[in-house]
Amino acid sequence: VKAVNQQTNVSHEGLSNDKGIFQILFLPPSRYRITASAAGFKTFQRGEVEVRLSDRVNLDVQLEVGDTTET
């Protein structure tokens, strides 16, 4: 799972656990583009995710089955 700051283009990465729950800690306040990928699934993308100071943002990410060549 990756969060890219839409103003600075700086990326922050996190990993999901076996239940699919992920965290990306200490994101500076800004708007982010979120991508998630796994082998055999289509890449999930969502833009304009706003993070404010002291926020905990919940994002429901559902990966769709895709070609094994897709990331």
Question: Top keywords for this entry?
Answer:
single chain; 71 residues; mainly beta; four-stranded antiparallel beta sheet; 0% helix
Approximate shape: globular
Assign a percent range to the helix content. Answer: under 10%
Structural class: mainly beta
Number of helices: 0
Radius of gyration: 12 Å
Strand proportion:
25-35%
Summed over residues and divided by their number, the pLDDT gives a mean of: 90
Q: Helix and strand succession?
A: EEEE
The major beta sheet can be summarized as: 4 strands, antiparallel
Reading side by side through the largest sheet, how are the strands ordered? 2-1-3-4
Low-confidence stretches: none
- State the distance separating the first and last CA atoms: 12 Å
Number of strands: 4
Give an account of the 3D structure.
- It is a single chain.
- The protein is mainly beta.
- The chain contains no helices and 4 strands.
- Strands 2-1-3-4 form a 4-stranded antiparallel sheet, with no helix packed on it.
- β3 and β4 form a beta hairpin.
- It is globular, with a radius of gyration of 12 Å.
- The model has no long low-confidence stretch (mean pLDDT 90).
